[in-house]
Every structure is written in structure tokens, then in C-alpha cells.
Design a protein that fits this description.
This protein is of the alpha/beta class and 404 residues long. It has helices spanning 20-31, 43-62, 68-76, 101-114, 130-134, 168-180, 196-213, 217-227, 233-240, 242-255, 264-270, 296-308, 318-338, 345-355, 365-372, 374-383, 390-397, and strands at 13-16, 36-39, 78-81, 92-95, 120-123, 143-148, 157-161, 184-188, 283-284, 293-294. The strands form two sheets. It has an eight-stranded mixed β-sheet with strand order 3-2-1-4-5-6-7-8, sandwiched between helices. It binds nicotinamide-adenine-dinucleotide (NAD). Nicotinamide-adenine-dinucleotide (NAD) binds at residues 16-22, 39-41, 45, 49, 96-99, 103, 106-107, 124-126, 147-150.
Amino acid sequence: MPSKTPTRAIEQVGVIGAGTMGGGIAMNFVNAGLPVVLLETKQEALDKGLAAIRRNYEAQVKKGKLTQEQAEARIASIRPTLAYEDLAQADLIVEAVFEDLGVKEQVFRRLDEVAKDGAILASNTSTLDLDAIAAFTQRPGDVIGMHFFSPAHVMKLLEVVRGKHTAKETLATVMQVARKIKKTAVVSGVCDGFIGNRMIEQYIRQALFMLEEGALPAQIDRAIEQFGFAMGPFRMSDLAGNDIGWVIRKRRYEEQPELTYSRVADRLCETGRFGQKTGAGWYDYQPGRRDAQPSVLVDDVIVAFSKEQGIARRAISDEEIVERLVLSLIDEGAKILEEGIASKASDIDMVYLTGYGFPLWRGGPMLYADTIGLYNVERAMRKYGWTPAARIVELAATDGRFNP
Ligand SMILES: NC(=O)c1ccc[n+]([C@@H]2O[C@H](COP(=O)([O-])OP(=O)(O)OC[C@H]3O[C@@H](n4cnc5c(N)ncnc54)[C@H](O)[C@@H]3O)[C@@H](O)[C@H]2O)c1
């Protein structure tokens, strides 16, 4: 994108959906001085969303981050509505409704009718095809993805998803707005999971294989946390909700039956252990507390699963755990570069440093690969019987780096 690409003025914002994400997204804009019209389908949902926003601001007042007057002013600059006509003046509209293509279709068709000419229409979808969403409108050049991370008013990362028809002006404007709301924005092409979640799926997949081969959740988490991650894969899954991964895996079993996947996590989900929100997941949680306690019951489920699969459990070293988890990120990252989903390795690193708790001093997965050398990366992958991504083999052979 040429650096002199013109941008559009963004003075008023619309947010659709006042759930987990919509409320936090709205807060970002009002915090930056941009008034927001917040739309829901039902008064009850609107009230619930506004109450959550108010609670978040009150917590900030309690911590001394805002005065009561500032908090009130910000809440007052969110205008709740049930009518699409109230979005007619918005320069940017961010949709955060249910993750269902049919619902997105209804919303984008309606937006196409009411939004003014030149308004940017953004979707916060995590998994749906942005190009399909853009095709619900007569103005696909104005459609873009703004993939916020939860909690949206806290997390720094914003994946900006560039669709097939997204206009350069739309992209440049959203990158500028991202700076205004103090996000670290990274451009991603359209693919399942974009950059961050596409890579984390492979990382979780390795973690699950290691469970059935002989490790336990607490060992895996401890090993990768010692490497420097903010949180291991199992504590992270318990925080995000194990049901989310379950939905994705069920889709994978249908769409990519050739993809091997340990079913050990499904066993856990079948018992309703969805994580912190159900008081139990890969770990046990005391009511009202977030510290993860290893669970004897879960360990038994894992050991029984290995037995059922005819897998002889073995001791897995912390070194192997770290290697397999980090290599799985590097390998998928390399594919993301090959496919042009990310335009440079440092973009991938930014995603991992700002959104996924990768140890800052290691510089992100791709820079870490450069640090240990691609020759060693390839050799380690082959040791585990993996076929490295073509980009890795090529760089290893030429003594190259992801970050030239
Ligand atoms: N929860 C996350 O961690 C997360 C992270 C990134 C992206 N996302 C994406 O954000 C979107 C919203 O997710 P969420 O977790 O906030 O869901 P949520 O269920 O908490 O909120 C969705 C809200 O949208 C409202 N809604 C539904 N249909 C609507 C319509 N037609 N018009 C207006 N409002 C409507 C619902 O009443 C609800 O309040 C999804 O696309 C999801 O994939 C979620």
C-alpha cells in the first residue's frame, strides 16, 4: 500500500452488538474521544451491555485511573439504540454480533441500506470468511475485518483483515484509527483463524498430542511458562473456554478428516469442564478464584485415554515440550508467510508478542527461529518426524532468515 494513500475522516463510530466484544470495542473509541452509537436487537441485551461497560469504567475509577466525571462523560458518549437508522451518520461501523454467517448476512445487508456513502463497514469475526461477508454488500471495497482480542478494551492487538476487495483507502483509514485507539495493528489476509488463531491451533494440537503421549497439563504449562510464555496452553484454554476449541475441532473433523487430532480434549469437554467459567477445566478452580489447581480427575481421564488408544505413556522432557510447542508456531508462521497472509515475519512476531503472551525478550516466534538458526529449526522438526514448511527448508539451505 503506498504510504501516501488517502484516508477518510472518522469522527463517529457505530458498534453493532453489545456482548462480550461489542462493549469493549465501544469503550476503545470513546476512550479516544470518538462518540459511539451502540446497536442491539433487544432492549434487554442493550441494558446488559451498558451495565457491563459501566462496571468496567467503575473499576477504573476505583483503581484511580479515571475520575468519576471522566467515566460519566465516556459512558454518556455511548448512545444506545435499537434502530439502524441511528447509524446513518457513522463513519466507521464495527459489527460484533453472533459468530454465524446468517446473522452477519442480515446485519451487512441492513448496513448496506443505512450506512452513508464512504462509511467503513468492519467485522470482528474470528473465523468466518470476510470476503463472503463483504459480498453481502454492494460496497465490498469499504468492508474490512477488525479482529479485536478479549477483553477488547485491554488487549493491545488488533488484526486488521484485508479482504480480496478491501480498498487501499479503507485499509489505510483503519490502520490510522487503530493508532488513535492505541492498538498495535497487524494486517492479515483472509484465512481460517487469521495469523494468531491459525498458529495457536497448531500449538494446542501439539500440546494435546503430548498429553496422550505421556505429559500432564501442569507439566506442559510449567515448561512453556519457564521458557517465558505468560500462560501455558491449558491455563489459557481454561481462561478462554474449552468449548470454543471444541466447536472448531468438530468443524475440522468434518472439513479435514485427514488431519490427525488427539481426541483427548473432547473427552474433557464431554464432561462439561469448559474452564474457569464452569469452575473446572484442565484444572480445578475454587469458587471466585482464578488460580489453577491440578486435577486428579483430569489426570485420570488423560491416562485412561492413552490406554484406550494403546499408547504406552512415556516421560516427556521439558525441553521436548518447549521445542514442539514453539516449532509448531514457527512452522505455521512460515506457511502464513508463504501464502502471503502476513506480509512480513515481524508482523507475525507482533501478533504473538502483543496478543498471545510470547516472551518479549525472545522477540516472537519468527525472530526466535532466526536466533536459533533455520538449519537447527529444520533439524529439530525432522527429529520429530515432521515435514517442515517449504520456506523453512529453503531458508535452512541458504543460511537465510525470516527477518532478512
Ligand atoms: N469472545 C471472544 O473472545 C472474541 C474474540 C474475538 C472476536 N470475537 C468475535 O466477536 C463477535 C461477537 O462475539 P462475542 O463473544 O461478543 O459474542 P456475544 O454473544 O457475547 O455478543 C454478541 C451480541 O450480539 C448481539 N446480536 C446478535 N444478533 C444481533 C443483530 N442481528 N443485531 C445486533 N445485535 C445482535 C447479541 O444480543 C449479543 O449481545 C463474534 O463474531 C466473535 O467471533 C469474539
